[in-house]
Amino acid sequence: AMRVNQDTVLRGKKVTLVPYTAAHVPRYHEWMQSEELQRLTASEPLSLEQEYEMQRSWRDDADKCTFIVLDSGRWPGQAEEDSMVGDVNLFLTNSEDPSVGEIEIMIAEPSCRGRGFGKEATLLMLAYGVRKLGITKFEAKIGLENEASICMFKKLHFKEVAVNSVFQEVTLRLDVSDQERGWLLEQTNHVEEKSYAELRQPAGVLDS
């Protein structure tokens, strides 16, 4: 099962990625009441109970890898729930080809958009997919109206490969050549990988 990241924290400059746990569900559920986010993520609103079930399936499914995006300026230090800004996901969608991953990024907190949070979170996830999951081909499917996201993926070397007028979405793709791999690792060489169990310890526990 995709428990590969259950103790993984990826700490960047602006964002820190942590595993999606039950503790994150209430805030996540609150975000997903937003009609704008439902539209941008093409998702239906779920009940809180369904959202908890969804979180469990994310944790246990072998073909999904997800991180909650926290604001590095706030966490550690503040409560995780107060530091959450979005999430980033990888789906292993092609059973014939495990080297293909579909990536999704959502910066749900409006005040955190347009500040480079999404870009760094995506870079961290791409590098993680390459290093840990053996992914060499990434795809992103984005609603045509979501110009900011399309533009960001293009800056990260994704190329547009298809437009679906029925679903009103564009598919972008990144093939990770040696050159792209080098670039990705260079872009993320500041990232520290840490243990989630250790970082979650309440302050003071380690000092005693």
- SSE order, one letter for each helix or strand: EEHHHEHEEHEHEEHEH
Strand order of the largest sheet: 7-8-6-5-4-3-2-1-9
Q: What structural class do helix, strand and pairing data support?
A: alpha+beta
Gross morphology is: globular
- CATH class label: Alpha Beta
Helix content: 25-40%
Strand content: 25-35%
CATH architecture: 3-Layer(aba) Sandwich
**Which fold does the CATH topology refer to?**
Aminopeptidase
What is the first-to-last residue Cα distance? Answer: 36 Å
Structural Rg = 17 Å
What count of helical segments does DSSP give? 8
Strand count, sense and barrel status of the largest sheet are:
9 strands, mixed
Annotation, overall tally of beta strands:
9
Pfam families: Acetyltransf_3 (PF13302)
Protein name: Alpha/beta-tubulin-N-acetyltransferase 9
Function: N-acetyltransferase that mediates the acetylation of the N-terminal residues of alpha- and beta-tubulin.
GO molecular function, one term: tubulin N-terminal-methionine acetyltransferase activity
